[in-house]
Write a structure and sequence with these properties.
mainly alpha; Arc Repressor Mutant, subunit A; homodimer; 6 helices; about 10% strand; DNA-binding
DNA sequence: CTTCATACTGACAAAAAGGTTAGTACGTAA
DNA sequence: TTACGTACTAACCTTTTTGTCAGTATGAAG
């Protein structure tokens, strides 16, 4: 275990800035399998508001984790996919699942 | 890659509830090496407010990730340590560091 | 009797995040 | 001309999160 000094720019904070918040990881995860349109993402994450979805997608694109592809058709067709960097959050998500399972197992036994 | 369905209780959301937010992971990380007193934690995480530190410690204890040990002395001496479940977030933090490094490397090269 | 050190509480305020709703742009097709 | 479907914007509001600051309790030590 290497040490992390808690400064304004430490790895934990960097990652939190990039994928922190209620929605970003959920969106990224949905895009892992294949590119999706806005309307498709809305279906996969039923309780996100349209505004948040668009807003979060925009920041994901700006920070280089996602790509927006505009087909220039009418009615509009826009597809979101992941960059290599975006794909790199998958191990993180896997760890979160692992932790969640561990937690639930522990807590069921102990109350 | 197993599928995660985005419902009200999915592993991603569970983990976010437990360790999401600006401070919890930073606090947990500081406690990895050894138990610390409140005042020691404050030094390690200089920009957290005392209120947030106490508040987050309380929720970490309530959710079973940390332990509060009161020595019953005066002036007060209280020590915070991790449960096994609390320790289980270390791989998650390691993944965050890994991701942050990967991200920074990519972004320095591409702008 | 006053001061000290430490952990903690509570009232309040500011800031950030998230949500709701109405509206825009655009070619197509009726 | 009108309605349609899709992605997106903007104004406004509510909720959640975070921060500030002034206290409280305690026994020891001066």
């Amino acid at each position: 275990m290497k040490s992390i000094r808690i400064t304004n720019r430490c790895p934990i904070r960097t990652t939190l800035e990039l994928v922190g918040g209620k929605w970003k990881l959920l969106i990224l995860f949905q895009l892992m399998e294949k590119p999706l349109r806005l309307s498709e993402l809305k279906k996969q994450i039923p309780d996100i508001s349209e505004k948040m979805l668009i807003q979060e997608l925009k920041t994901l694109v700006e920070s280089g984790l996602a790509i927006r592809r505009n087909f220039g058709e009418v009615p509009p067709r826009v597809e979101y996919s992941l960059t290599d960097t975006g794909r790199a959050v998958l191990p993180l998500i896997e760890e979160m699942r692992h932790f969640a399972l561990f937690y639930e197992e522990k807590m069921v036994k102990k109350g």
